[in-house]
Each structure stands twice: as C-alpha cells, then as structure tokens.
C-alpha cells in the first residue's frame, strides 16, 4: 500500500511514517516546511512529494497529520485529485470542524476515517494503545477499516460531540491546569521546591514540565478550536474561586464539606481506592528509570 502522509515533517506525522514503513508500506511525505520535510524524508528513506496534491494523487491511503485549524482546508485542497476507493484518514484532536468536509469526502466515493490517537509520541509501538474513531458515513465499515490498518491498537468508536466534550476535559482542562501551575512555579526557586516537595508535588511538577515541553501552537489549537473548552474552563474557575473564598474566610467546616462532596463523587470511579498506591508506584518507577 502507498501511504501519503500530509504533514509528514511534524512529530506525529513522522511517527506514523515510521509505523507504516515498519509494516511494509511505501511512504510518501509532504509538508509546507520543505526543508524539515527533506530532512525527515532523508532520515527515514521515504519519498518526498513537492506538494500535498501530488502526494495524495499517488496514494492508496492519505494520512493527514496537520494542525487542527487547517485540516479542513487541506482536505478541500487535495479532494479533487484523490482516487475513488482511496482512504483518507485524519487525526486531529478536535472533530467538529473537520467532520463536514469528511462527509463530502465520503459522498465522492472516497473512504473516510476520522481518528484520534489517544497516546503520546513516547509510545514505541501501537500494541496496547487506543485510537478513537469518530464515525463519518458508515460506522461499521469504518471501524473494520481502522482495525485493518491498525490491528495492534484498540479502536474506540465515539460520537463527535461526545468526543469533543471529552477532549475539553481530558486535554483542554488538564493542559490549562498544568500551564497555570507551571506559570506560578517557574517564578519561584525550583531547585529548593524540588528538594522539599513531596510525592504529590513531584508528580505534578513532572506533568507540568511535560506539558510545557510540547508545541505551544498545538496546545493553543486544542484550547481555541474546541467549542466546549471555555464551558469547562469557566466551571473550573468558578469552583477555584469558591474554594479560594472558603480558604480566605478560614471556613473550616465548608472546606470539609467541599472536599467530602468531591471525594464521594470521585469515589464512584472503580480505581479510586487504588489511587494513592498508584501514585507511589508511578513515582518509584520514575526513580528506578532515573537510577
């Protein structure tokens, strides 16, 4: 199979270029960052196309790994040259903006896949990893196709709105918390804090540093292209202000009520009782890795 990766010079694009190479496919990459694309093509020993349209014309699978806000434009650009029965897959983190053009793709006799890899670039292989599948035209056929292309991964079908709401909580909210945490900590004596910080601080600090090591443009897109993000961020800010007021007023009883209510609701999670143990296991694993 010939696979064209649009945005192949990016970190996720080059990750999938390696994946498809390792699985015996012929890979073509294209990217507006021509110099970077040339470097990636040379390092992976894959073909470099002069533009997205030419790459798409040659491929059995067109795999789009571009920023969230330009993915619909890329799809519109390459659509006229794509062969019928080819597969067009995109992996943007937010789906509401790209789904309408994917429906147009399906109407042209081209097989669409709207995917969201639920793993980071540190993954060495797909075995045990999850990929969300947002149905476009034929949920059953699209799931079968995704499983054929990525047999090692667990494919999780999910409705577009449910997916984007979940991403507002699992990406937008967590990134926001870690960015704000990092913006406060970075103005203090980090060395001193690391020497005095306990388990909770250590893990939170590692998470924040990991978030801050990523591409800020990607994280801006995740925040600004999800219509549900500000809904949950406003909810977070209100609860934060409520708790801050409780603390400022030294209202011990109300603090306990706030904490207890939250804990009761959270304890519905089947893994809640193991959380403290898991925290220490995670920290010990990190210590062993660094030794």
CATH topology of the largest domain: Rossmann fold
CATH class of the largest domain: Alpha Beta
In angstroms, what is the radius of gyration? Answer: 22 Å
Going across the major beta sheet, what is the strand order? 3-2-1-4-5-6-7-8
Summarize model confidence as the mean pLDDT.
Answer: 95
Count of DSSP-assigned helices: 13
Count of individual beta strands: 8
**Domain module tally:** 2
Q: Specify the overall morphology.
A: elongated
Decide which structural class fits the backbone. alpha/beta
Distance between the termini: 43 Å
CATH architecture of the largest domain: 3-Layer(aba) Sandwich
Describe what you observe in this structure.
It is a single chain. With 291 residues, this protein is of the alpha/beta class. It has two domains: 2-158, NAD(P)-binding Rossmann-like Domain (Rossmann fold), CATH 3.40.50.720; 162-290, 6-phosphogluconate dehydrogenase C-terminal fold (Orthogonal Bundle). It is 57% helix and 12% strand. It contains 13 helices and eight strands. An eight-stranded mixed sheet has the order 3-2-1-4-5-6-7-8, sandwiched between helices. The longest helix has 26 residues, at 160-185. It is elongated, with a radius of gyration of 22 Å. 28% of the residues are buried.
